[in-house]
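W.,

You were right to be curious about this one. When I first looked at the sequence I had no strong expectations either way, so I just let the prediction run and decided to look at it fresh. Below is the sequence, 326 residues in total, followed by the output.
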Amino acid sequence: MRWHHDERVDDGIMRHPADSVAWKTLDELHPSFATEPRNVRLGLASDGFQPFKSTKTPHNIWPVVLIPYNVPPWLCMKQENFILSMLIPGPKSPGDAIDVYFQPLIEELKELWETGVKTFDASSRQNFMLHASLLWTINDFPAYANLSGWSTKGKLACPCCNKETLSIWLKNGNKQCYMRHRRFLPRINKWRNDKDSFDGTKEHKLPPKMLSGNDILDQVADLDGNILSKDPKKETKISHDNTGDNWNKKSIFFDLPYWKTLLLRDNLDVMHIEKNICDNILGTILNVKGKTKDTINSRLDLEVIDIKKELHPIKKGDKYELPTAC
């Protein structure tokens, strides 16, 4: 449990969460916690799955797993080191009301941070007060919304861009499209001025400002105390018309005294991102039927946006065809 402090090589290479800026920021802001290397750093992961083979049986289980990061990277993700803190069963996913189930866990995490628990260290044969902190959550995109409180649907779906998310509705593809990614490039980058390869414009916009915990608390101040329930008769209806944001609730994790000071509170898991992007790229390059994103509707959307004219579909009678050169 002291490996991250005693044996980790701090050479600027990212091999372990202890090498991250988020970990080091917590140490700087809370030195009394950082001085004891045996204090536990935790990550929280949760997602729902269908426990029965028959999809006709309405049921959903959400395991909530805590991962202790003190140990070496080759032990971090071993199943025997995972802590199954709770199972949330039900006919449907808990949605935003998952905070109701998190209440006992949050109370224990607060106690572990503020008071600690008397613990016996077998290596030194001494007792000490053990404290713990939750560094971040790790989820797929839908679960990200349930835990963070920011809805990952609609025109403001990006939690990082927040109110500065830039999107357009593509009627042929029947989906929201998120645009202007070149604003995240350095100010001096040739792609910012490359009109032909992108949407026919130069990009001069700066990336969105990174919001602090206090910024988020200001945005969700009016949601504090809202009733969270899967019962539509009890749940408080949230309107985004006047706020211009996508917050559905104030996350219960903000009850943790240190949560607003964390640099990185919510993460997307790598597995879903790698799999989905890889599937889409390979499906499109290899023109796999049912997997490719290069469809008539996507070409019609290019026509509506008025870019890439050489890729616009050709109308023959009542049907559209892709250009033969493509």
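Here's what jumped out at me. The chain has a mean pLDDT of 89. And, maybe more interesting for your project: The longest strand covers residues 60-68.

Coffee later to discuss?

I.
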